[in-house]
Amino acid sequence: MFQVNTIERFILQHQPKHAQGDFTQLLYDIALAAKLISHQTNRAGLTDILGGAGEVNVQGEDQQKLDVYADEALVRLCDHTGRLCVMASEEREDVIQIPEQFEKGSYVLVYDPLDGSSNIDVNVSIGTVFGIYRYKDWETRGRLEDVLQPPRDLVAAGYILFGASTMLVYSTGDGVHGFTLDTEVGEFLLSHPNMRLPEPPAYFSVNHGNLGKWSPAVKAYVAWLQGQADGDVPRLSSRYIGSLVADFHRNLLRGGIFAYPAEIGKPEGKIRLLYEAGPLAFLIHHAGGYASNGHGPILDIEPTGLHQRVPFYIGNRRLVERIETLLIEEK
């Protein structure tokens, strides 16, 4: 008999052992936020939502109107449910406390509300990235320490891709699963169960415009990815969108690597550990891949600040381990 597998049904049927209802509902809260953001994204050319918001975020970047909308949507859908003890957003300088009038929950939500927002005005795919931790201390109402946890301690992570279709991809540690929004019925339907990185990989994604800012080892690595080396070189094509979620999603489906290396004068790189690198590292791990800062696993990095950045290499394990080898030799 034909059965429609909605995201709600799937979450309920595959909830982890530690889930007691709140965790399951939190994932569905995020799915609801995805629908709202998707609706505004699809109407961006028809409403006064495109362009800058006239503000600069904590990262020193111009905020876009959709950035602000996505951030507010996630906060308003999640701050009153009794499922969270604290939140942290890439758009905000400090942690987001749960208002005193609402019950304190057991989970922590970290997120980048709209990755790739500089591409909004040119109609390029953008996305939301999120991670979920368990609280560390029940006695205190939402501490910085509850947010600053290594990515290996995530209990779930995922992203929402707003492109030709809207997709929500997530993992609770039991595989990586993708859902596509059916706009006719207004629901996410299972479309990509048990996503795994394919072999051989097909693509590498790196901003060649930064070539002059890279160390010799990184330059040699990119040349290797291009096939400009002796020995066992990969046969990859170059694809770079400039929206991390979009580049990651393509490489997850086709195999490959996304790299945003450290730069001369910017050894910490660009990618945020809490909101981008950590959640995506969790996903790639459960899809059979690997994420590194060039010296070791992203999953093992202990955050020291809300907006800490890290060099970032993520994709098929052999491709990522190659840059680790080259950087060790460079020392």
CATH top-level class of the largest domain: Alpha Beta
In whole angstroms, the N-to-C terminal distance is: 61 Å
In what range is the share of β-strand residues?
A: 15-25%
Largest sheet: 8 strands, mixed
Low-confidence stretches: none
**Bulk shape:** globular
Domain count: the total is 2
Helix percentage: 25-40%
CATH-assigned fold name of the largest domain: Fructose-1,6-Bisphosphatase, Chain A, domain 1
CATH architecture of the largest domain: 2-Layer Sandwich
Question: How would you describe what is shown here?
Answer:
Strand 9 and strand 10 (187-192) form a beta hairpin. Helix 1 runs antiparallel to helix 2 (22-42). This protein has 331 residues and is an alpha+beta fold. The chain folds into two domains: 7-192, Fructose-1,6-Bisphosphatase, subunit A, domain 1 (Fructose-1,6-Bisphosphatase, Chain A, domain 1), CATH 3.30.540.10; 203-330, D-Maltodextrin-Binding Protein, domain 2, CATH 3.40.190.80. It has helices at residues 7-13, 22-42, 65-78, 144-147, 216-225, 244-254, 273-286, 317-330; strands at 52-56, 62-64, 84-89, 96-97, 107-115, 126-134, 156-162, 166-171, 177-182, 187-192, 203-205, 237-238, 256-260, 271-272, 290-292, 309-310, 312-315. Strands 4-3-5-6-7-8-9-10 form an eight-stranded mixed beta sheet, with helices on both faces. Strands 12-11-13-17-15 form a five-stranded mixed beta sheet, with helices on both faces. It contains eight helices and 17 strands.
